[in-house]
């Protein structure tokens, strides 16, 4: 997560995770950055004991904290709040739709520390904000390629421009499989070690077919032909056939490639006229599922071959 941050404005703008936040103070601090997915309930920090305060974390104030603030004298409230706000706190979030004392809002406004209010219970909000931060703070990247869902297997097709990735994906859609993204795939790392691919919003559901132009897969084949996102399970690199190059003919070795620190199985598929790439990719998906169930066709063939060679060797010795 090195170098990845979110602004408090990003929290305020959320429509996907149900944070449902509204701003009540500190608008000038909405540019403050958050880099940790952990939150903190300040607790003793409200009493003036700030030794274990983590100002880089979002500070959540629940019913207990707000009730405590209202019980303080105005002077004590101001002193404690001033001491708390002397730290570079990213923001406060008040749960249950509660409103803090006016003095607290006044001082946070002076220090440009945003105060947001959520209608959720503290436990519910903490769960929502933790999920939001964990997913949004993870590394991301964009890759040139096509992502399709074939029999539930997320297959990322890569290769140089014009090699036939989109045409191959179109053939798979016609066969009943699903398009996730064409041309540019937005990839987000998801803990502990998986990658989720989705389309760039501007070209979602669209595909470029040379000679036809831009087509809308969702409009042509219906909602069952597309997916919004998919975990990437396998990378297939389409490469022009080179008669001088040796290609893997057995599939015994499991090659991998690394994206955002995650290792994925990697296959190189030679492309030449007469090869039905749609069928090959469909078989690759079935073979991947079979390996996941513990059966490796190439290794099983190798084992049977070795056993046959041993039998013949023993027969020679007997003779």
TrEMBL record:
<keyword id="KW-0808">Transferase</keyword>
<dbReference type="InterPro" id="IPR003755">
    <property type="entry name" value="HPr(Ser)_kin/Pase"/>
</dbReference>
<feature type="region of interest" description="Important for the catalytic mechanism of both phosphorylation and dephosphorylation">
    <location>
        <begin position="207"/>
        <end position="216"/>
    </location>
</feature>
<dbReference type="GO" id="GO:0004674">
    <property type="term" value="F:protein serine/threonine kinase activity"/>
</dbReference>
<feature type="domain" description="HPr(Ser) kinase/phosphorylase N-terminal">
    <location>
        <begin position="7"/>
        <end position="133"/>
    </location>
</feature>
<feature type="region of interest" description="Important for the catalytic mechanism of dephosphorylation">
    <location>
        <begin position="270"/>
        <end position="275"/>
    </location>
</feature>
<dbReference type="Pfam" id="PF02603">
    <property type="entry name" value="Hpr_kinase_N"/>
</dbReference>
<keyword id="KW-0511">Multifunctional enzyme</keyword>
<dbReference type="GO" id="GO:0006109">
    <property type="term" value="P:regulation of carbohydrate metabolic process"/>
</dbReference>
<keyword id="KW-0479">Metal-binding</keyword>
<dbReference type="InterPro" id="IPR028979">
    <property type="entry name" value="Ser_kin/Pase_Hpr-like_N_sf"/>
</dbReference>
<dbReference type="InterPro" id="IPR011126">
    <property type="entry name" value="Hpr_kin/Pase_Hpr_N"/>
</dbReference>
<dbReference type="GO" id="GO:0005524">
    <property type="term" value="F:ATP binding"/>
</dbReference>
<keyword id="KW-0418">Kinase</keyword>
<feature type="binding site">
    <location>
        <begin position="159"/>
        <end position="166"/>
    </location>
    <ligand>
        <name>ATP</name>
    </ligand>
</feature>
<feature type="binding site">
    <location>
        <position position="166"/>
    </location>
    <ligand>
        <name>Mg(2+)</name>
    </ligand>
</feature>
<feature type="domain" description="HPr kinase/phosphorylase C-terminal">
    <location>
        <begin position="136"/>
        <end position="304"/>
    </location>
</feature>
<feature type="binding site">
    <location>
        <position position="208"/>
    </location>
    <ligand>
        <name>Mg(2+)</name>
    </ligand>
</feature>
<dbReference type="Pfam" id="PF07475">
    <property type="entry name" value="Hpr_kinase_C"/>
</dbReference>
<keyword id="KW-0547">Nucleotide-binding</keyword>
<keyword id="KW-0067">ATP-binding</keyword>
<dbReference type="GO" id="GO:0000155">
    <property type="term" value="F:phosphorelay sensor kinase activity"/>
</dbReference>
<protein>
    <recommendedName>
        <fullName>HPr kinase/phosphorylase</fullName>
        <ecNumber>2.7.11.-</ecNumber>
        <ecNumber>2.7.4.-</ecNumber>
    </recommendedName>
</protein>
<feature type="active site">
    <location>
        <position position="249"/>
    </location>
</feature>
<keyword id="KW-0460">Magnesium</keyword>
<comment type="function">
    <text>Catalyzes the ATP- as well as the pyrophosphate-dependent phosphorylation of a specific serine residue in HPr, a phosphocarrier protein of the phosphoenolpyruvate-dependent sugar phosphotransferase system (PTS). HprK/P also catalyzes the pyrophosphate-producing, inorganic phosphate-dependent dephosphorylation (phosphorolysis) of seryl-phosphorylated HPr (P-Ser-HPr).</text>
</comment>
<dbReference type="InterPro" id="IPR027417">
    <property type="entry name" value="P-loop_NTPase"/>
</dbReference>
<feature type="active site">
    <location>
        <position position="165"/>
    </location>
</feature>
<keyword id="KW-0723">Serine/threonine-protein kinase</keyword>
<dbReference type="GO" id="GO:0000287">
    <property type="term" value="F:magnesium ion binding"/>
</dbReference>
<comment type="subunit">
    <text>Homohexamer.</text>
</comment>
<feature type="active site" description="Proton acceptor; for phosphorylation activity. Proton donor; for dephosphorylation activity">
    <location>
        <position position="183"/>
    </location>
</feature>
<dbReference type="GO" id="GO:0004712">
    <property type="term" value="F:protein serine/threonine/tyrosine kinase activity"/>
</dbReference>
<dbReference type="InterPro" id="IPR011104">
    <property type="entry name" value="Hpr_kin/Pase_C"/>
</dbReference>
<comment type="similarity">
    <text>Belongs to the HPrK/P family.</text>
</comment>
<feature type="active site">
    <location>
        <position position="144"/>
    </location>
</feature>
């Amino acid at each position: 997560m090195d170098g990845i941050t979110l602004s408090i404005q990003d929290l305020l703008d959320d429509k996907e995770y149900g944070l449902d936040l509204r701003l009540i103070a500190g608008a000038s601090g909405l540019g403050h950055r958050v880099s940790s997915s952990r939150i903190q309930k300040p607790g003793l920090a409200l009493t003036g004991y700030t030794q274990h305060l983590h100002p880089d974390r979002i500070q959540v104030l629940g019913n207990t904290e707000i009730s405590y603030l209202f019980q303080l004298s105005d002077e004590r409230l101001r002193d404690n709040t001033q001491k708390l706000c002397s730290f570079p706190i990213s923001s406060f979030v008040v749960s249950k739709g509660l409103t803090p004392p006016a003095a607290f809002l006044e001082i946070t406004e002076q220090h440009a520390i945003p105060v947001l209010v959520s209608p959720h219970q503290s436990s519910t909000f903490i769960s929502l904000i933790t999920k939001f931060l964990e997913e949004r703070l993870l590394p991301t990247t964009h890759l040139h390629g096509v992502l399709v869902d074939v029999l539930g297997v997320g297959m990322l097709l890569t290769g140089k421009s014009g090699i036939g990735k989109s045409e191959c994906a179109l053939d798979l859609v016609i066969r009943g499989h699903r398009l996730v993204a064409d041309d540019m795939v937005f990839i987000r790392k998801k803990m502990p070690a998986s990658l989720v691919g989705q389309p760039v919003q501007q070209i979602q559901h669209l595909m470029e077919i040379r000679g036809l132009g831009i087509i809308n897969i969702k409009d042509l084949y219906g909602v069952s032909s597309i997916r919004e996102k998919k975990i990437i399970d396998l990378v297939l690199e389409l490469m022009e056939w080179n008669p001088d190059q040796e290609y893997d003919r057995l599939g015994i070795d499991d090659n991998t490639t690394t994206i955002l620190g995650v290792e994925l199985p990697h296959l190189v598929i030679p492309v030449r006229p007469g090869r039905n790439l749609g069928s090959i990719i469909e078989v690759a998906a079935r073979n991947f599922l079979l390996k996941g169930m513990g059966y490796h066709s190439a290794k099983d063939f190798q084992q049977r071959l070795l056993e046959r060679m041993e039998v013949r060797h023993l027969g020679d010795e007997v003779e």
